């Protein structure tokens, strides 16, 4: 009991230390920012206008690692660099900055590059998802073949030590998830028919098991919830 | 027992290793490739029911006068004494030549055959009821008594007793009829074919199968009866049943009952009274008879009759005057016997009317050994021994001399009631009580009692190779294997076992007909008794594992051991094929399907070789079993790991969307950074230049 306040005090000290440190960094950043704004006010003006999409992306991105903001930010920055270099090319002044900002071409370059960032951000996850699906299916098929070979040679008793209960539990979760997604997709379809991008729609693309060997009786080859709902 | 059938039908095929058989296409049956048995040429005049006589010829000496007695397989012949009696070289004894087992076409099973020299003369008595011209005393002495004393002396010296001496088993030596020829003694167990008339009082009261090997006095008693028959020209009491004969003998004594009112000279009366004496102590020995033949003459012994009571004991509506007579009557009415014992009327009669202190004391002793809660059968059985100590041990339908206890269970081994009574006889300690009541015990009787005591321990063990089956084989060296598997076969010796299995396998060719078990209780007990090498561990495995692979392998291992020991060069392909079928389930102990197939193929190939040990080498290859077990453990591990990977993969599927977003986000930001850098560089370079 006597130690608790001590511990609380030390914890508080660390937090205070961290607070002090972040406070110091902020102060330093502020100083640098003030210096930069003072020295390159015209460029900052262009960047402030051109980087608006990044700010929006930062605000709408709820991911802790802010992948959307980063993706958009990098591309947006690349676009803004072209305009900033134009500014620097003319010697740089607030008037020139205004002039550049008045040109819609420059806005197109800056916002267009940001849009390209958004395209990259939205395009990659489905591609990755497709790749993952393919590789997982192939892996399961390989595992099913291995299991089938072992069962053929050693009989069903080879399953003796396999944790099939745990596998079933995972499969149940998967089936429940697939059911949820199917019902969500159904509701979406009824509303506007735009639910095609959900997981439930994907199994249609799954490769059919080879007809010469039925792997459906192996733990890796048996149908899972997603497939059931897809086939249903 | 009805006599065996004889027919001229085509003989069955026989290819046993030990015994010869029929050349293909039928014809005579071969014994040891030396003797041809002709089933289609019966010799009814030489039948010795139930054994039937048929012509036998020697393969290389067709002039030799031989015949064979085809014995009833249910009444095993005395094959164990054939080699001993073969050594008794006497012109007046029918000479045994050999024996074998053949497929007997008329019975459609295998029967033992004893090959003997054929008597040149006719039977003296065609049947026991036949009559002939009485012989003179001098002729009887010269042609019967003199040779038979020598024959019996030789036989008894070898420890063998004839036990088949009776008028219809005597032949004339030749057509001159100047000499007699003593008939065979092999076709049935001692005493089983003899009417009670030719047995001593003790044996006559026992069941035919329970008379035991007997001793010299049993042969001499039969000689006495035969002498009466030869002197009088007819067998005394020939037409009567055994029961009536014994009733008369019990009533007036054997000598009086047999001689009746025939005229017997004083000279012949002396040996007859000695030979037919009911008191074992007074009965003549071979030496007495020999001395009489050499001229010693004494006054005939008076027949000592058992003590008669002053007043009869009324039981079952009849009065009995002697303790032995009463014991016989009580045995015949077993269920009513306990009442007079319990109500004290027997004690009163013994004390007041019989006045025989020994009997009173013996009966008291018999009763004192029975507790309140004990079985009433124990009381009756003990009292009967006390009343007639020289008589057989009696327990309900069971009545056997001490040496006959074993042979009785041997001949009725398949009869459940006989088994129970035998077990009860042993458990009630009747043999021990019988011993306590004897005034004089023969060494062979003591030997038998010791064997019975050992039997008690063996019988109380329920394991395979023990129990009453083992006791039956222990006490009966001639008893063939009684297994239901061999109901059409005859296994006279352990060497016949595997050939019998081979025949069985050939007969039951179809897989569904094949027996599931080759080693049943009877085969196990037979092997334990007759196979001289240890087989206990295999029998324990068979019992413990049953139809499991280890049990099946143990069965074949036992037979393989016998083959390796007794049939080193013998091959049994049909048995091996059957064994392979039995062993097939044991292949399932291999986990690998590939290995199973490989072993099955090897097993089938090995079966064609006819050696059981080859099958075991395939099925019971420990290195193969171990390798399979190790590989299986590895496969189980691999499978378990693959399931773990499956679980991980399916978890990834579950989280695929999230994963795709995460990886997609990372990739997008990375690509974006790279793209921006490249774009910035290009822009900068263009701006610079």
Description:
The complex is a heterodimer of chains A (about 230) and B (about 700). Chain A is mainly α. In chain A, about 75% of the residues lie in helices and about 0% in strands. In chain A, helix 1 (about 5-40) packs across helix 2 (about 40-50), helix 2 crosses helix 4 and helix 2 (about 40-50) packs parallel to helix 5 (about 95-100). Chain A is elongated. Chain B has a six-stranded antiparallel beta sheet with strand order 1-2-3-4-6-5. In chain B, helix 10 (about 335-340) crosses helix 13, helix 17 packs antiparallel against helix 18 and helix 21 (about 535-545) packs antiparallel against helix 22. The longest helix of chain B is centred in the C-terminal third of the chain and has 33 residues, at about 620-655. Classes of the chains: A mainly alpha (about 230), B alpha+beta (about 700).
How is the secondary structure organized here?
The complex is a heterodimer of chains A (232) and B (689).
Chain A: H1 3-39, H2 41-50, H3 52-60, H4 67-89, H5 94-102, H6 104-154, H7 164-191, H8 225-231
Helix pairs in contact in A: 1-2, 2-4, 2-5, 3-4, 4-6, 7-8
Chain B: E1 29-31, E2 35-42, E3 52-58, E4 66-70, H1 82-86, E5 96-104, E6 109-117, H2 137-157, E7 170-172, E8 180-182, H3 201-204, H4 216-232, H5 242-252, H6 254-259, H7 266-275, H8 286-293, E9 313-315, E10 318-320, H9 323-332, H10 334-342, H11 345-354, H12 357-368, H13 376-387, E11 393-395, E12 398-400, H14 404-411, H15 416-427, H16 430-436, H17 443-460, H18 467-475, H19 497-507, H20 521-530, H21 536-545, H22 549-566, H23 573-587, H24 593-608, H25 612-619, H26 622-654, H27 656-688
Antiparallel strand pairs in B: 1-2, 2-3, 3-4, 4-6, 5-6, 7-8, 9-10, 11-12
Helix pairs in contact in B: 2-4, 2-8, 4-7, 9-13, 10-13, 12-13, 14-18, 17-18, 18-20, 19-23, 21-22, 22-23, 22-25, 23-24, 24-25
